[in-house]
Task: structure prediction
Amino acid sequence: MSVLELEDVSKWYGDVVALNDVSLDLEAGLTGLVGPNGAGKTTLLGLLTGQLEPSTGRLRVLGEDPWGNAQLRERIGFVPETLSLWEERTGRDHAHLAADLTETGTRSAADDWLARVGLAEAADRPAGGYSRGMRQRLKLAMALVHEPELLVLDEPFGGLDPVGRREMMELLTDIDEAGRSILFSSHVLHEIETLTREIVVLVGGRIVAQGDIHRIRDIMDEHPHKITIRLGQPRELATSLIAHDDVVRVRVSEPTDDDPGEVLAETRAPDVFYDRLRDTILEEGYDIQELLSPDDNLQAVFNYLTKGASE
Amino acid sequence: MTDAVYEPAYEAYEGSRTSRLARIGAIAQRGLAQVGSSLWFWVILGVSFLHIAVRGAVLQIGAQGAQPGATPFSASFLADALLSQARFGVTFVLAAVAADVIAEDLETGGLTFYFTNPLTKPGYAAGKGAGPFAATLAVTAVPVLVLWLLAVAFTPEALYPDNVWLLPLGILAASVLVGLVTTLVVAAVSAVVGARGRTAAVWVGLVFLLAAAARVARGVADNADLLLIDLFDALERTTHTLLGIETSPIPELGAWLTVAGWVLVSLAGLTWGLHREEVAG
Result:
């Protein structure tokens, strides 16, 4: 039986079409939903989690219509991208609130999940002092307190540094191995590839590819992957990066009084690059303030796929 | 419910389940704690009891020299205290503790969190409104019931008003009505404005502008019915009705219709605010 079934589902806001005639059938397991910003990923997740009503089409999640179905939400855990947490409340209070709002969640399960995501020691501190990685892990714990069958995550790696990304990936792998179905979105293909081979590519509100990621990667390898790293010592990091064959280009912006410095790197092997970057940061103790993967490069791949799909 | 869909390793939950009421109660409990931790709430409550203490003193002084029929203890005396508390105490306490409850969730993405849990929108609104509603009772029903107790204690039994033992029920009913309606209006303003920090100003501005507009309109047209432009004037008339007072210049039916109109408009605003993302994307 399918976890998700969509038949000719469309969603529009006024004149804007967010999803256009999407049909999809997903089995249990770990699936990545990839697409550039504005592709309709968040709208699709909103439909799947019952926050939005489809304009047309038929939608089934775990065999049920999610729209207005509060009972179905008991079987789904959702990690939204937009939730910015309540700054004064502790992590434990967040997790307990999540447990209190469900039928099957308990406060002891919430405490257990806080420990499993590595927040046991920080649980009684206000969430306002949490790093981005800790916030994401807290949101993950909040989504799991009621032991849902399906876990849905919207951009779970957004804004995380390499260490945070690795921690989140390890957690998702563990959750997948425990038997839950997981659907997560990302606009960075590399992130999805690390976790699963099953992907759905969404561009301009349409599904342009679905299936094994390696076919997509073959196309992507023709395009260098751009990564922006903001830190206080850009020249030192750039010198370290350019020494490797997979790095085709590095551009440095020096720090100013208002802004930290920036390194824009282009690589043909993002997997290797990210692993090496993580090790370099840990070894050299660089103070990374932000790590971004601009859409331009990925957009080119999506454009290619879109063109290919329409031919 | 259909068959469960999961991988073999997944173990479905088989323990006890939390009721819907308890889940709404969890939101309410946090709202009450938030009210309790608000400095402004305690300041306004303190001022409310000062106000009641002054009226209690007036009552005692009046009772000491009262001739039959001249005692200040009456339904009108309590209604005046209640309405003063409603117009000022409720207005400011809601500005302090209620204005941002929904606006904050709209800004922070909290609504997505709540509504991707097994919670309905009415359940969410009820939970969020419980704390502010309790705060309105704390500055209306509680001090005015204390004033009633003082009046009963200070006034000779022979001078009690006829409906003395029904007055607490009237006070409670009027306070509940004021609290429910005003909490709903503030919740709607919070959901429509949708930005922290602005809702309180919109709410307080709305209260005082409408009060001023009602008085100007009444003066110009020499028609007491125009006081119904103001929500609190309508609530004044309903309070008089609930306390058995028949002397208000405002028409009773018009007052109830005005209150009902505010409730309907507020429900529409609240519904729109909570569904705005479904409409706008």
User: Anything to note?
Assistant: DSSP finds eleven helices and no strands in chain B.
